[in-house]
From TrEMBL, chains A, B:
PROSITE patterns per UniProt: AA_TRNA_LIGASE_II
Alphabetically ordered keywords of this record: Aminoacyl-tRNA synthetase, ATP-binding, Cytoplasm, Ligase, Nucleotide-binding, Protein biosynthesis
Entry note about domains: Consists of three domains: the N-terminal catalytic domain, the anticodon-binding domain and the C-terminal extension.
Name of this chain's protein: Proline--tRNA ligase
Organism of origin: Hymenobacter duratus
Record EC number: 6.1.1.15
Enzyme class: ligase
Subcellular location: Cytoplasm
Domain of life per record: Bacteria
Ranges where the Aminoacyl-transfer RNA synthetases class-II family profile domain occurs: 27-295
Reactions this protein catalyses: tRNA(Pro) + L-proline + ATP = L-prolyl-tRNA(Pro) + AMP + diphosphate
Main location: cytoplasm
Listed GO MF terms: proline-tRNA ligase activity
Length: 491, 491
């Protein structure tokens, strides 16, 4: 609270980093590229986890846990997947340290404790999981196999940013096995819908659902579906992916099943994941120059009550506040009474604004005597005086309204930052202006996609599922195109 | 179900391994010493997690997340801790693989991607967490700091066993910081009580609470408190530990705070943890030759309903079962209706016995017509016919009774397997007989403790908190002793 945040309009990137740290979400650690998720940030992540986990279970999935390490021989079994992740993986080569003979008091790797086979710290778990599925699947009766795992993974990224790109991150990864391609595709799309629903209804983040181009596909997948959100600086952010793996991993790990008809067939697979990256999306999509703006459904504290009192009055005031506090708690609303006697109301207001608490109640003796409460909403910064008698209902309704309003605002932002263009000039202008999604015709080739990326830094975020067919010509090459795709600069 | 389990009386160790695998709790993986926790096992672990997490939060703790890796320079900062874990840690030395020039299609570690400083995969997180706390703690106002983390850790054990000792395991680790030694000791003991309460009320496992001897203390702690359970083979199992760290980590990482009086002091610390080892304790404490016996509070499925029907009747029967099923679900009881048309009732009975489902209802048309249900309890194998009209209440009461009965049985076993002895001969006889806890006088020296361990394989499990003072003489050396301690052979 000592000084104000950098402004979004002046340095969006600095604003983001400072906000994440000052609001107590996360910070950098002593390990290059790895973050510490602080209690307030972790509390939001826990709400995300709980919600998603319930959604996965309602769609028939069970949780399990597979090893952190992948032996090199398994890691390299699915070639494309291995190639995709080999360049950025942490490798365990030894299993012991010893006192350094040249440096007493210091340790060094024990040269006699070298592993026969190196272990890769999982960047994703298809390899270890499909090598396990071989033992679990013999017959069509063992299918579908619907498993999810909550875990940490490591990708040795060179440029990292809190939540958005870190060497270690937390995520969930679903890995399912099916008897037919149709079932596997249906699962892939179902989980995309689950992610989209979570993003829109819980994170208040409108998303475009689509399919990735070959260039952007998950290494080892036949198709990658994704949801793409738009941040306030006009850049897109991939918020979740769901992959149709075909029979690639089944073939790499020899996972076959006896079909109903008696034949032996390779299994069809999917995998899908969202990560702590969602935390970054949540911050970037809604927050402002005063701090976080959290959707009520994910806010660890939904209502903060700040007592306004003269010296010596605090205990009595807290006593009078208690019925309101209890009423809110009974309604299932999480409430914090900021009873610190060491800070002034203005300081507290600023702190809870920074932390994005959706509703603030400022309560003094005089208000209570008059039967009113001063209510401030974080999203619009409106203040109003509401009757004390009906405060629980009013706050509950207000929280619902804030959830809807945050979504509506983000949706409106996306609408005003989605431009349909027909020429390369218009395309570049749209990107250089306020950014956002630029929806344009593309000739379908990787070469064109790459040239556009080199020249404009924009990538194809997805071929949107709800984009209608339309005859047109590629903005770069003029070749024929059947459908527009979504371009954007992206995180 | 193809063949029956090995018997406990014939090969306890084989019985345990087979049971863990066949009941679908866990299996060995392709990675040496690492297990796969299967969905049914993970469902039990999730119930444990949820319960403990609620208990931690009720006692004022918040969750956070710290990096998987510990840079070597931090790892070695607290000398005793480093020495304790250096011999069994996984070390990351490289961050990239490349195509092996001698073996196209294979990968090898890229010699140009060697880390400047090796990273240790955390065997426990004191080092990384206390290096972080240095930034979080400046003043007494920042204390106490009450943090917990759910995470995976790696200890490169040479002899591993599913759940009991694995190279990677899942756990929670609490790490707290306090202004005074008294507060830190109180926290250490509070968390010991939380663990004991969880073990007894949820796992139905009676435990002895005590303090470890110096030999068995956590590396870097001033005192290690523990809870010790007794397994059916007469061996003890340490089920949770809570450490008073003194100022050891605060000094190693220079974590000082300004006291109320204005001085600069080192912070006092605690850490405490339980792990997936609890799963092993749960299995070993209660299960029998037919399979798992799960306490209802931790059973993923509390009631299984097996329809008994003639060909063609299944759909109608399921329809008639539904009200009972819904009644149980509304009561908060987890129910599984085994509607598989491919297996016979006897097969289903055996399968759910193996999986330890506390209550089984076998329901046929004739029973329903007569207004009764056949109820079988897993713990005592009793069967009874109960009135359909009141079945929800009966089952709810039965589940409570089973929880109590499983605890009572384990408690009785411990009572009959706790022997108080006064001579070394009696001591060895007790161990060679049915094992269990042997409570005896000890002279307080590490030498005696080690000699007893060498000669009998028994270790001091703890100096029990509720053991009264009593003058006596050490069973080995005859030297004076003020208090008996708990010995046992242990996992």
């Amino acid at each position: 609270m000592s000084k104000s945040l950098p402004k979004r309009s002046e340095d969006y990137s600095l604003w983001y980093n400072e906000l994440v740290k000052r609001a107590g979400l996360a910070e950098n650690s002593a390990v290059r590229g790895c973050m510490v998720i602080k209690p307030y940030g972790y509390a939001i992540w826990e709400k995300m986890q709980r919600t998603l986990d319930d959604m996965f279970k309602r769609t028939g999935h069970q949780n399990a846990y597979f090893p952190l390490f992948v032996p090199k021989s398994l890691f390299e079994a699915e070639e494309k997947n291995a190639e995709g992740f080999a360049k950025e993986c942490a490798v365990v080569t030894h299993y012991r340290l010893q006192t350094d003979p040249d440096n007493p008091g210091k340790l060094r790797v024990d040269p006699n404790a070298k592993l026969e086979e190196e272990l890769i710290v999982r960047p994703t778990s298809e390899a270890i999981i499909w090598s396990t599925y071989k033992g679990w699947i013999q017959s069509y009766r063992d299918l579908p196999l619907l498993i999810n795992q909550w875990a940490n993974v490591v990708r040795w990224e060179m440029r990292t940013r809190l939540f958005l790109r870190t060497a270690e991150f937390l995520w969930q990864e679903g890995h399912t096995a099916h008897a037919t391609a149709e079932e596997a595709v249906a699962e892939t799309r179902q989980m995309l819908e689950v992610y989209a629903q979570f993003a829109e209804e819980w994170m208040a983040l409108p998303v475009v659902k689509g399919v990735k181009t070959e260039n952007e596909r998950f290494a080892g997948a036949e198709d990658t579906y994704c949801i793409e959100g738009l941040m306030q600086d006009g850049k897109a952010l991939q918020a979740g992916t769901s992959h149709f793996l075909g029979q690639n991993f089944a073939k790499a790990f020899d996972v076959q099943f006896q079909s109903k008809e008696g034949g032996l067939e390779y299994v069809w697979g999917t995998s899908w994941g969202v990560s702590t990256r969602l935390m970054g999306a949540l911050v970037m999509a809604h927050s402002d120059d005063e701090g976080l703006v959290l959707p009520p459904k994910l806010a660890p504290i939904q209502v903060v009550i700040v007592p306004i009192y003269k010296t010596g009055q605090l205990d009595e005031l807290l006593e009078r506040i208690r019925p309101m506090q209890m009423g809110l708690i009974e309604r299932g609303i999480s409430v914090k009474v900021d009873d610190r006697d060491t800070e002034r109301p203005g300081y507290k207001f600023a702190e809870w604004e920074l932390k994005g608490v959706p509703v603030r109640l400022a309560v003094g003796m005089r208000d209570l005597d008059a039967g009113t409460v001063e209510v401030a909403r974080r999203d619009t910064k409106e203040k109003m005086n509401l009757p004390l008698a009906d405060i629980v209902n009013s706050v509950a309704a207000l929280l619902d309204d804030i959830q809807v309003n945050i979504y509506r605002k983000a949706h409106q932002f996306r609408e005003t930052h989605t431009t349909r263009v027909d020429t390369y000039e218009q395309f570049k202008q749209a990107l250089e202006g306020e950014g956002g999604f630029v929806v344009a015709h593309w000739d379908g080739t990787s070469e064109t996609e790459e040239r556009i990326k080199e020249e404009t830094k924009a990538t194809i975020r997805c071929i949107a599922l709800n984009e209608p067919d339309e005859d047109g010509t590629c903005i770069l090459t003029g070749k024929p195109s059947k459908r527009r795709v979504y371009f954007a600069r992206a995180y």
